[in-house]
Amino acid sequence: MIDITIGILIPFLGTTLGAACSYVVKGQLHQELQRALMGFSAGVMTAASVWSLLIPAMEQAASWGKWAFIPAVAGFWIGVAMLLLLDRCVPHLHLNSDEPEGIRAHLKKTTMLVLAVTLHNIPEGMAVGVVYAAFLSGQEGISLAGAIALSLGIAIQNFPEGAIISMPLRAAGLSSHRAFAGGMLSGVVEPVGAVATIWLTSLVVPLLPYLLSLAAGAMLYVVVEELIPEMSAGEHSNVGALSFSLGFTIMMTLDVALG
């Protein structure tokens, strides 16, 4: 159980370490570096969605024969719909944007930036939770090493995310402590979401293939709706695409080598 607890907390540690950059750097990140970090995160999340979530979801439904794709497709679209609903309802502001999204609310810009990253972290927490739930339920194809690999991959891409949210808060005039707290708190939803998903899956084990693919759909929604546009914003550059490829191959390597 200690291994499970540590695994759930690893992604949050990545966010916390990244948020600590507010104590070192006062200004904004250079645009090219932002693109690189966004591309890297997108690559990690895409690879995790395929190798850690969608493929295991179809393996869990192997008894369905040629219809084994049904839970994966259904869960995927539920995940997309869930993130679309949250995106439309929760007030938030994406990086390098001055136009808030979600319902109208009189919130500070810094608060909406934190909410944007918090939305981004919900599917990551679900992904970690459902993979550990699959391991705890003894499902074939899901090992503790594979679950740890997913935690490590998300933690690696959470580090730049923590920095991306805390440093703009610092540049906006917040103290180092408050900027760090904002970046760190944006990641709290991950262990909370992981625990909630483990609890839900323990109640209804047959839902596991659907929950695996639901997390994948939610993560890929974030990649396409947020990360890819941000890594490609501004003047043409290949940095985002190269960073995406790096993140994708690192996460794929972790999953295959450790899983």
What features would you describe in this structure?
It is globular, with a radius of gyration of 18 Å. It has one domain. By secondary structure, it is mainly alpha-helical. The longest helix is centred in the N-terminal third of the chain and has 30 residues, at 31-60. The mean pLDDT is 85. The two termini are 19 Å apart. The protein has helices at 2-19, 31-60, 69-89, 109-136, 144-171, 176-185, 189-203, 208-231, 239-258.
List keywords for this structure.
mainly alpha; globular
How is the secondary structure organized here?
Layout: H1 2-19, H2 31-60, H3 69-89, H4 109-136, H5 144-171, H6 176-185, H7 189-203, H8 208-231, H9 239-258
Helix pairs in contact: 1-4, 1-5, 1-6, 1-7, 2-5, 2-8, 2-9, 3-8, 4-5, 4-7, 4-8, 5-6, 5-9
Please report the distance between the alpha carbons of the first and last residues: 19 Å
Q: What overall geometry do the principal axes of the alpha carbons give? A: globular
Total beta-strand segments: 0
Fraction of residues in helices? over 70%
Q: What pattern of helices and strands is seen along the backbone?
A: HHHHHHHHH
Look at the structure and give the mean pLDDT.
85
What ranges have pLDDT less than 50 throughout 5 or more consecutive residues?
A: none
- Proportion in β-strands: under 5%
Biggest beta sheet attributes: none
Task: Give the count of structural domains.
Answer: 1
Structural class comes to: mainly alpha
Q: Count of helices? A: 9
Radius of gyration over all CA atoms, rounded: 18 Å
